[in-house]
Amino acid sequence: MKTFFQRLSYENRLLLICLVCGLIPCFSTMLLLFSSELANYAKWAIMILLLGVVFVCSVWLKRKVITQLQNSSNLIEALCNHDYSMRLRETTTQGAMTDFTRSLNAMAEVLATQNLMTREKQILLDKVINQIDVAIIAIDHHKNISLMNPASERLFQCRFSEIDGWPIRTIGLHNLPEDSYRKVVEFTLERQNKKVYLHVDEYFEHGQKHQLVFISDIQSLLREEERQAWQKLSRVLSHEINNSLTPLASISDTLLRLISKQELDPQFGDNLKDGLAVIKERSTSLNEFLKGYQQLTKLPAPDKSRFNLLDLVNAIAPLFTQSTIQISRSNIQIYADKAQIEQVLVNLFKNAQEAMSDLEHADIRVCWQQSETQIVIDVIDGGVGVSNPDNLFVPFYTTKSHGCGIGLALSRQIISNHSGDLVLKNNDNGVGAFARITLPLLEK
Predict the structure, then answer these.
(1) Which of 96-100, 274-278, 424-428 is the least confident region?
(2) Which of 281, 233, 250 is nearest to 396 (CA)?
(3) Which DSSP symbol is given to 197?
(4) For the domain with range 305-440, which CATH number is right: 3.30.565.10, 1.10.1740.10, 3.90.1170.50, 3.40.50.2300?
(5) pLDDT digit string (tens) for 98-130?
(6) Which of 197, 200, 199, 192 is nearest to 218 (CA)?
(7) Architecture of domain 133-217
(8) In terms of pTM, does the model score above 0.70?
(9) Which of 65, 240, 265, 436 has the greatest number of C-beta atoms within 10 Å?
(10) How far apart are CA 55 and CA 79, in angstroms?
(11) CA-to-CA distance for 365 and 438, rounded, in angstroms?
């Protein structure tokens, strides 16, 4: 069991020691006083004075120690609460207590400097994470979402505040490996196939292993590389073929004028004229064909303005008399190049109408919706669907007898220049196809 002295607090022990140390000489002095010839009232006065001095000095020493300990405790508590502005006042220039005070102040100064550096680095890191195009998701040891940067919110079209603590599988990421992982994968998000570079790493927090998922949307990069490749090919083909077509057209025209002035066998002359006319017509047609592809290399930057989507669609619909276009009644504003968006919608309506050319009732449904970050426009038909989705946006490729394979490639390039996306897929019910345009929300 603890003794009475051990149960006392530090300051009370100090007070008790001071009283004992002071009372021993006091009692010795009192014995000498009572053995002297002084008057009794003088003896009692001196005795009371000595006892008072001992008591007052002991209490003062106790309060001095308590004040120093409380100030030190307040400083430490402030540091624990991340308040680095408090300092202890030095009452003397030397001594053990002064050294202790200086050590505490030096520690507070170091912590304040480290805290400032940490906050500056945290601000820098937050800015980098918020501005970087790579989607970053932190997952705790229970496979729940603990952090998402704005790029992740844009990619998965959700708010971190709404899904904080949700399982990672709710946003479409399943069976993530436990160890480091790097691979190009493809997953479906909102009826779109996204090709991304997935990198999984790990970190520790409070002794628990957590995961960091880095997702780079490489689909736009691949499309840009593909577009540049087709542009280079188109420029080379245009240059080489035009160098041959122009002389052919000119020579055939000259020969036709010369033949008209000569007397030839009627049958031979007619055949020769027909052949030269075909050469001239095909040269001119091929030249016009190449000019269509040059749109991909000379597409101007969007001249953006605000306009109503409903008014634009209503203006386009009368151009397609062979189909019934069902238009959403809601109205939203778009910040984009009106002429270019109109060209995209005309191409999509034309494709939808041609896909339903054999049907008695050709209905095209146009609907749109607006979220906090983007605008989604769907053009849905009930036609034959998409037979070869891999080559839809490849220039020069077409399944139509009279097509040149430029419409969809140009349309997707226009939407890409608006920082959006265009996808074309078959409907889930197996009837017809849908085209989805995704555009950023109206800029302020």
Answers:
(1) 274-278
(2) 233
(3) E
(4) 3.30.565.10
(5) 888 888 889 889 988 998 898 898 888 888 888
(6) 197
(7) 2-Layer Sandwich (3.30)
(8) no
(9) 436
(10) 36
(11) 17
